[in-house]
Design a protein that fits this description.
By secondary structure, this protein is of the alpha/beta class. The chain folds into two domains: 200 residues, 3-Layer(aba) Sandwich (Rossmann fold), CATH 3.40.50.720; 120 residues, N-(1-d-carboxylethyl)-l-norvaline Dehydrogenase, domain 2. It has eleven helices and eleven strands. α3 links the parallel β5 and β6. α6 packs antiparallel against α7. The radius of gyration is 20 Å and the shape is globular. The structure holds NADPH dihydro-nicotinamide-adenine-dinucleotide phosphate and ketopantoate. The site of NADPH dihydro-nicotinamide-adenine-dinucleotide phosphate has 25 residues, from α1, α3 and β8. It catalyses: (R)-pantoate + NADP(+) = 2-dehydropantoate + NADPH + H(+).
Length: 338
């Protein structure tokens, strides 16, 4: 592996695939002259059929995106509400960014779809994007990242793990609800040389962005917390802090942490006692006591949850390593039944 820092077109476009809460947050804070959203190609089927032009078979270097030729540029407008800083109070800014009609000039791709949508969203766009364009995956949980790197092992693919919090109380309002940290690191071999440059570019947002060469380890740390909080909040329909007193949680958390400790060791080599994991989960539940978790929000809005990439991923790991995961299985089944 070479140790150099790869420069890539700093003047190129930063394209965001997934114009939801996370995508809109980064888009609003990165330099606006360089940012735009990639539309859903599935919703543009008619345009694609009419143009009748196929992508350059996997070379991705064609420099233009024929499918959307003739499509007028449309804009995505929303209000960014920053309630993250107790010092500055609430600030509002109008954001107006393009839906991109061309993939020609993309020098960095941020993927902010939900975990379950990531592979198909990338399947539709990557054939048009240059093969040396770094792709940063922002999904929570694990499993979707591996699916992407197995599908495109030669591309520079990175992952981000973030504790930023964003939500959309209304379609055209994006609330930056909690300032946090974002760690970015390489998943594929060719991504190593891009990491510093990607971190520098993301840091232009003003958010705290750090290089993390052990990004999978970092994703596991977040997975542990999500596995111990999200499903309980969805099943109990309560804010994060309320789970710790609920009988369902109190009766199953030690069993859950025993499963996670064994899986953590089998997958990453990290040895952490189940009690320490429980402490970590409860510290986050208490520090985010009034939060509605993403899974509770998804269930209440009738959306598909990310359970398959959180407790469901742990069940799959258990099957691979011969580790029993009855509590994780119970949580997956019960959330799926909601
Ligand atoms: N929000 C947060 O605070 C945090 C989120 N994360 C993680 O970030 C990821 C995104 O979360 P979040 O932003 O909240 O989710 P959202 O549901 O708000 O956004 C996902 C977006 O992806 C779009 N999308 C889905 N499929 C496609 C496709 N094929 N092509 C183009 N766009 C597509 C959706 O479009 P449509 O609206 O049309 O369905 C939606 O706008 C998740 O994995 C989440 O766990 C991590 C930390 C914090
Ligand atoms: C840490 C936690 C539980 C905060 O709400 C989260 O990441 C989520 O809701 O998905």
């Amino acid at each position: 592996m070479t140790a150099g820092v790869k420069r890539f077109g700093d003047g190129g476009q930063i394209a965001i695939l997934g114009a939801g809460s996370m995508g809109r947050l980064w888009a609003a804070l990165l330099p606006s002259s360089r940012c735009g959203f990639l539309p859903r190609l599935d919703s543009l089927g008619q345009t694609a059929e009419r143009s009748n032009i196929a992508p350059e078979d996997g070379t991705g270097h064609r420099g233009s995106f024929s499918r959307l030729e003739g499509t007028p540029e449309t804009r995505c407008e929303y209000v960014l509400v920053i309630s993250a800083s107790p010092d500055t109070g609430v600030a509002r800014t109008l954001v107006n960014l393009p839906w991109l009609c061309s993939a020609a000039d993309i020098s960095l791709l941020l993927v902010t779809t939900k975990a379950g949508d990531t592979l198909s969203a990338l399947e539709s766009w990557l054939p048009y994007i240059a093969k040396d364009t770094p792709v940063v995956l922002f999904q929570n949980g694990l499993g979707s990242q591996q699916a992407v790197t197995e599908r495109w092992p030669g591309r520079p693919i990175l992952a981000a793990s973030t504790t930023e919090g964003a939500n959309r109380p209304e379609p055209d309002v994006l609330v930056h609800a909690g300032a946090g940290d974002t760690w970015v690191g390489p998943l594929t071999d060719s991504a190593y040389d891009y990491t510093e440059s990607v971190v520098q570019q993301l840091a232009q947002s003003g958010l705290q962005v750090h290089t993390e060469n052990s990004i999978v380890q970092r994703l596991w740390q977040k997975l542990v917390v999500n596995a111990g909080i999200n499903a309980f909040t969805a099943l109990l329909d309560c804010p994060n802090g309320a789970i710790v007193d609920a009988p369902l949680y109190r009766q199953t958390i030690d069993g859950l942490c025993t499963e996670i400790a064994a899986l953590l060791q089998a997958n990453t080599g990290e040895r952490t006692a189940p009690q320490a994991l429980r402490k970590r989960i409860e510290a986050v539940a208490k520090s985010t006591t009034n939060n509605t978790s993403s899974m509770r929000a998804d269930v209440n809005a009738g959306r598909k949850t990310e359970i398959d990439f959180i407790n469901g991923y742990l069940v799959q790991c258990g099957q691979r390593h011969g580790i029993a995961t009855p509590v994780n299985q119970m949580l997956v089944q019960r959330v799926q039944a909601l």
